[in-house]
Amino acid sequence: MTEGILFDAAMLTTLALTLKLATVTTVLLLALGTPLAWWLSRGGGLWKEIVATLVSLPIVLPPTVLGFYLLIAMGPNSPLTDLLGFKLSFTFAGLVVGSVIYSLPFVVNPIRNAFVAMGPRPMEVAATLRASPLDAFFTVALPQAAPGLITGAILGFAHTVGEFGVVLMIGGGIPGRTKVLSVTIFDYVETLEWDKAHVLAGGMLAMSFVVILAMMLIERRYGTGARR
Amino acid sequence: MISARFSGRQGDFTLDAAFDVPGQGVTALFGPSGCGKTTVLRCMAGLTRLPGGHLVVNGVTWQEGRQITPPHRRAVGYVFQEASLFTHLSVRENLVYGLRRARGPLRISEAEVTQLLGIDPLLRRPTATLSGGERQRVAIGRALLSQPELLLMDEPLSALDRISRDEILPYLERLHASLQMPVILVSHDLSEVERLADTLVLMEAGRVRAAGPIAAMQADPNLPLIHRPDLAAVIEGVVIALDPAYGLSTLQVPGGRIVVPGNLGPIGARRRLRVPATDVSLGRHAPTDTTILNALPAVILGAEAAEGYQITVRLALGASGEGASLLARVSRKSFDLLGFQPGEQVVARLKAMALSAPAQTGG
User: Fold this and answer.
1) Interface predicted TM-score (ipTM)
2) With contact defined as beta carbons under 8 Å apart, do B309 and B255 qualify?
């Protein structure tokens, strides 16, 4: 392993693309997932269970299955493509859409659990203190659910960095556009460039370890705080 | 004037409760657990919505059938059974959460509230380190600072241990004495009600059995209160004399004077006495050669059989029965031996040492 391998231009492009994809996906997931998690956490009903099931599907579905359907939906002659006027398949935007759907449960579920654990009381207290529902959501619900939001963001980011099947199906691995880390590792292995594969795989292993450790620490800190 | 009526179903429970109570002072919603007290209180805050009924508080309509003002648009303060402080905020941030959002004129300031409830030393402490009683005081202060026109309290003391309860009761009595706003208090503890409430709403199985001034409700022979073993009469009076040499205070109550142990001053202060029925005995003549300090003329209004061969005698103080109502529980044998009849003038003897005067009420 030499310095030259670490500064490989193709590798840096891949790394930058992966981080960009994960960042955009995480931001979108927090923006979409938080209201969705709130809605799912308030009250019951069959509809909510059906939506919750759909949200959780990517946990059990093989990524290739999800990628296959997304590829069809984003490909030529699909209703979505007709509606948009352009194809999403094999584009960065397509990857973002796929990643958002693929990582949705990893963001929505921890946030939903945090809202459920909070219970209805804090929002009732806020209402009797003249806070409108929106005001109370931002000044009470979000701060109280902070550990869930942080966990969701970390999981969503890490999961997007690590995805393989979906991005390969809908992105194809075009360098600089849709070729992310996991696909690059696969390519290196296929072409017997073991040294480069080692660098990327080792990097991802280290990152995963740090992510899980960070989550445990956050959980421990806020976990004891929440029982006040 | 507070006019309330709520009817509707919640699961298996049917509520149909209506009452009109004065728009000032403390009104207690009293009844066994599961009778719907808390549901009524939640309806008054708008937290629970029952489509049937109305709520008008001192001229402001908060509910008329299905037209229900949401809780955040009502000038209502709510103290929950558990303090429910916001754990992500400091004590002070909790206190001013409602104050920042309050509309209309400032009725009570942060300084007044912290002084009234003794919160000052707590302001800089994290909410996690407060005791149960301290938390509940902060919760009450937080509700008061939202400048409510109506304060609702759902068993604010029931989650506390005896010591915290004794610590917080004097604060509640001070609130009662110094605040103008009406308070609705949910309670299943009669002694708490007797210390704090002016008006009693008696609830049973989702309905209001009766409502009225507490003294009248205690002495009503048609209500279950009169059969309680801990029956007592609540009498309000004014301090008219102090005797420091003997450690006694004299209160002028409607229809008589009562001597009470302790310095209840200053002169002119209003005080509330709780006189247990078992501490009142009856005779035909003023006693001589006795250690009993209080012997007051009274008129027998009626008598009800009580458990354990006893009789509950309803009385009114004063030679012609014009004064406050008083209750006595005596043995059936002595009652029959003396042949007391309704309308008869008697002398009620009160064990002075048994009188308890909650400190610092009135002003």
Assistant:
1) 0.85
2) no
The answer to whether residue A7 scores a pLDDT higher than 70 is no
Q: Provide the CATH topology of domain B232-354.
A: OB fold (Dihydrolipoamide Acetyltransferase, E2P) (2.40.50)
Average pLDDT along chain A: 87
- Chain A positions touching B101 (Cβ under 8 A) are 129-131, 135
State the average pLDDT over residues A134-145.
95
Rounded CA-CA distance B350/B185 in Å is: 30
Of B146, B185, B182, nearest to B168 by C-alpha is: B185
pLDDT digits (tens, 9 = 90+) for B6-63: 999 988 899 999 999 999 889 999 998 889 999 999 999 999 999 899 999 999 999 9
Q: b/e map of B152-184 (b: 16 or more CB within 10 Å)? A: bbbbbbeebeeebbebbbebbbbbbeebebbbb
Residues of B in contact with A122 (CB under 8 A): 84, 86
Task: Record the tokens describing residue A117, joined without a space.
Answer: 């654990």
The answer to whether the CB atoms of B80 and A135 lie below 8 A apart is no
pLDDT at residue A133, as a whole number:
95
Q: Which residues of chain B have pLDDT under 70?
A: 352-363
Residue B330 near residue B313 (C-beta atoms within 8 A): yes
CB contact under 8 A, B88 and A143: yes
Q: What distance in Å separates the CA atoms of residue A110 and residue B142, rounded to the nearest whole number? A: 31
Same fold, B2-216 and B232-354: no
Residues of B with CB under 8 A from a CB of A: 45-47, 70-72, 76-78, 80, 82, 84, 86-88, 97-98, 101-103, 126-128, 142-143, 146
Interface contact flag, A128 B71, Cβ < 8 Å: yes
> Is residue A223 over pLDDT 70?
no
Residue A210 has pLDDT above 70, yes or no: yes
Task: Match domain B2-216 to its CATH number in 2.60.120.10, 1.20.1600.10, 3.10.129.10, 3.40.50.300.
Answer: 3.40.50.300
Q: Which of A121, A128, A142, A228 has the highest number of chain B CBs within 10 A, making it the mutation to test binding with B?
A: A128
The pLDDT, as a whole number, for residue A81 is 84
pLDDT at A120 exceeding the cut of 60? yes
d(CA B305, CA B113) in angstroms, rounded, equals: 47
Return the residue of B nearest to A136 by Cα: B72
